């Protein structure tokens, strides 16, 4: 990192926004809040009020959370138990200061609004990591997550400046069957195991399974990279990294808020998805809630089941298919994701519609038809990201549910049997984790498992 | 990519912003402009006016280019010959529609304002790629760059929707010595060769050299990934990918505009840097301009010399050094990058200052002292990004100059000899490329080389 020598240093832009050297974390935030949080925050709110009065939704979209949160406080005193999507604004000068509460009935990062960057890091427990060690590990994880997601670096963090602007960082912890077995082998849920094999699986062993999952998500890759490294450092005496996968969506602010992401095949991806505000969301996603059958161990109540599939795209051959052919493969237009049976992106697909020749408009092999179920309990909450590294492109398909065997597996079985899209995708990685229930200032991650 | 089945599709947010299926690229832009560009753009401008009148710089920062550009036109009619940092606004609903002109005396992507994501892709020419083939290749590259950077996908692009929102995408082309030799061996500049070996180099052969460089930069990783793939596809019959490296800075909008980036060691990185508005910028960076000695081949006049070094950071041992030790290693504070001799980030370093014991405040081994030169022509224009993949973290150090042997090499030699930072970094990759001069609607990339 050579510094350009020069007798006249250049001022491209001056900012006095960084924390000062001599003050601790709290003083730092106090000072920043004083400098920028108060007045500027109120200003933004005032101008947003004007924008809203003028009926200009674009402005609300462009500044998003900065207006929605509005409290301007420096702490994360809320919980994510509600819709979990309103960030707390620490600093109005850029969204870097936005943070999401990590406490609540459920962990953050599942039903919080999608952010731009995600990293999944799976660990293999060391042989010596017994119950007592795991209890220590969860205590450390709990403190690290409280610090890193709030912008107050944990005490042992040597680079607090890289943690000070969390950009809606969430850290979500999942466990694999081996971790549960080390605590109590009788409490491993039936579904917490490798998925049943699918005919078309091409798992290469590089992104399968794991004993512990750390899922980091943020709108900025810098605090995410720093947090991932801090956790890796603190986990080192308990577990080794097994694999790591990085995903992305369109950048924060590039599209109007709420725009459904596009995948690297060019498709609008994720349109039909339960929403956290839905009446049946909890019973689909959160274990032990709603009309749950009650046959799951209590330690995972308030948690969820994550299925992560690495889906490699064969984009070179996909590109050779003409546009109508690609649209028929999916059942939706490439332009805006609307069903081939008409309407806009969010219009329901009409599976009965026929064309002038009496043939179905949505072909029998179309992805949307194969993925569709008439059983409303057979639904999943998708939260995928794109990946593109090492000369390989695809989708990190992620979905949350109460029971993968009852929700993801029947969907994937239908796709596995007959989905024209299979010609251009292959599943090369597969993992299932139990997302732990949430925690509060008075409890910790893993408490219910260790109880 | 299973679609969640469900009888009641969910509306998380409705947008009618995507191009319609039946219209071509131009109609698409016309329609989008009609829907969102006009009215919303005016609205943003109006509200920004209010914000500015109230003296709220944060709002201007948060919406940045959307307000600065303001023309709301759908084309990129300007050139990047000026300061090149004001994006043209295509669509006010998010910055995705911003595009930068690719035409000008110099290629875009060098002195254009730093964006969030960068990808360097180096190619090795195929044996059969002779002068005639290279002429075809440059024609294809020229058209692809004009299309992809403006948001109008090239005709052969099967996924125009992934190109429609360029997010300030720039594509910058460099050439290595072998490519020049295939056209005219007598015209290879002396500096267009592997750098002289440095004592502490630890080049592992995975990120060295190359015959052709494609540098893609954008504020959104999605159009960047798509453009990289389109170019790889179109280059396939001429060259094979040799290596690819991805870099990032803080996300667009996370920090106030103009904030100097931080690297993964936590340092403010890149403070002292010539600025495109400086009087001597051109003579430092653009070959054949200012007081250039005139000994460089004319084909590279208007171009520049890029040095790219992959610098791996040993963050685990770096973290073990206490904070004063890390600050003394650099000569600047970690908090805000100000020199240890006082002031703010942009205050000149006082190399003569001594402490109470009569010792220099900036130690003899400090990075800033070793990088500093009293010769003002011995300066470089830095444009680095962070990398963090495959369990490895560091800096993709990039710098532009007229002549690396006269500018980068003396700096790096001083650092190589004595820079305490060497204890925690190692250079594992090294490449030098000649950045071609710019092109206009009437000329093409490589014209001067092929003339």
From TrEMBL, chains A, B:
Q: What InterPro entries does the record point to?
A: Dimeric_a/b-barrel, Dyp_perox_C, Dyp_perox_N, Dyp_peroxidase
Biased composition of type Gly residues is found at: 66-84
Q: Does the keyword Chloroplast apply?
A: no
Q: Which residues form the Dyp-type peroxidase N-terminal domain?
A: 107-249
Matching entries from Pfam families are given as: Dyp_perox_C (PF20628), Dyp_perox_N (PF04261)
Q: Required cofactors, per record?
A: heme b
- Provide the Dyp-type peroxidase C-terminal domain boundaries: 261-438
GO MF terms held by the record: peroxidase activity
- Region ranges (Disordered): 1-28, 64-92
What keywords are annotated for this sequence in UniProt?
Answer: Heme, Iron, Metal-binding, Oxidoreductase, Peroxidase, Signal
- Per the similarity annotation, which family is this? Belongs to the DyP-type peroxidase family.
Q: Record's PANTHER family?
A: DEFERROCHELATASE (PTHR30521:SF4), DEFERROCHELATASE/PEROXIDASE (PTHR30521)
Can you say what this protein is called? Dyp-type peroxidase
> Where does this protein come from, organism-wise?
Leucobacter rhizosphaerae
